[in-house]
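User: Please fill in residues for this 243-position structure.
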C-alpha cells in the first residue's frame, strides 16, 4: 500500500472557503448534535405516548400503539428517510408538496423527524416493558388514593418506569446520534457527510474518517458519563440500578 499520510491536512484551507478542513468536520459535528438531540426529543415524546397507549385497557389505543411500533420498527431507517424526503411531497396536494420541497433546511428537518419517529418505536417498547415490570399494587394504590388514570400514570407509574428503563434509554440515545449518519443519503452534511467531502477534496481518506471516528467516540463518552451520573442519582433501591 503506497499511501501518503498527511495529518497536517486538517489545518489546510478547504475548497469551499469556509476555513480549514478541521472547521468542516466541526461544523458537521455541530449539525450531528443538533439533529440527534431534536430527534431524541421527538422520540421521547412520541415514544412515551405510544408506550402508555400500549398499556391501557382500551383496545383501540392498544391497536394504534401496535401499528405505530410495527410500522416504524420493521422498516429500515434509510427507506423511511427516502419516503419522507422524496415520496411524501409527491403524494400531498401540489401546494403542500411544493411547500415541503422549498422548506429551508429540508434535509435537516426530514432527518430529525424521520429518525425521531424511527427511535420512538423503540422507546415505546421499552417504556411498555418498564410499566409492565411494576408491581400491580402500585396501580391499585393509585386508584385507591382517588387518582384518575392520567394522574396515576403522571404521578406514580411513569416516574418509576422511566427510572427503571434509564440504562437502555442511554443506549437508544447513543443509537440516535449514530443514526444521523444515514442522513447523508438525503443531502445532510453532518459529521459523516463532511468527512466524506473532505476525503473527496483532499484524497486523505484515512485521516478524514479517523477524525470522524474519534469525534463520535468523544461524544459517546460524554453522553455515557453524564447518563451514568444520572442513573446513580435516580436509581431505585431493589431495582436494576438500585443499591
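Assistant: Residues filled in for all 243 positions:
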Amino acid at each position: 500500500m503506497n499511501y501518503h499520510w498527511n495529518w497536517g491536512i486538517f489545518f489546510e484551507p478547504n475548497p469551499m472557503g469556509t476555513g480549514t478542513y478541521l472547521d468542516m468536520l466541526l461544523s458537521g459535528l455541530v449539525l450531528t448534535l443538533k439533529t440527534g438531540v431534536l430527534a431524541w426529543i421527538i422520540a421521547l415524546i412520541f415514544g412515551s405516548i405510544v408506550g402508555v397507549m400500549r398499556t391501557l385497557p382500551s383496545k383501540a389505543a392498544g391497536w394504534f400503539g401496535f401499528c405505530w411500533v410495527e410500522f416504524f420498527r420493521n422498516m429500515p431507517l434509510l427507506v423511511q428517510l427516502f419516503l419522507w424526503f422524496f415520496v411524501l411531497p409527491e403524494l400531498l396536494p401540489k401546494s403542500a408538496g411544493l411547500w415541503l420541497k422549498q422548506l429551508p433546511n429540508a434535509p435537516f428537518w426530514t432527518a430529525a423527524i424521520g429518525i425521531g419517529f424511527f427511535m420512538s418505536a423503540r422507546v415505546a417498547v421499552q417504556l411498555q416493558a418498564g410499566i409492565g415490570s411494576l408491581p400491580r399494587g402500585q396501580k391499585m394504590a393509585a386508584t385507591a388514593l382517588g387518582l384518575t388514570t392520567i394522574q396515576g400514570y403522571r404521578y406514580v407509574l411513569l416516574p418509576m418506569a422511566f427510572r427503571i428503563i434509564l440504562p437502555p434509554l442511554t443506549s437508544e440515545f447513543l443509537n440516535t446520534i449514530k443514526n444521523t449518519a444515514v442522513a447523508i443519503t438525503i443531502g445532510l452534511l453532518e459529521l459523516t457527510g463532511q468527512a466524506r467531502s473532505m476525503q473527496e477534496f483532499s484524497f486523505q481518506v484515512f485521516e478524514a474518517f479517523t477524525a470522524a471516528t474519534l469525534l463520535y467516540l468523544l461524544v459517546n463518552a460524554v453522553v455515557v458519563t453524564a447518563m451514568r451520573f444520572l442513573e446513580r442519582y435516580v436509581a431505585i433501591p431493589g431495582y436494576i440500578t438500585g443499591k
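For context: The mean pLDDT is 90.
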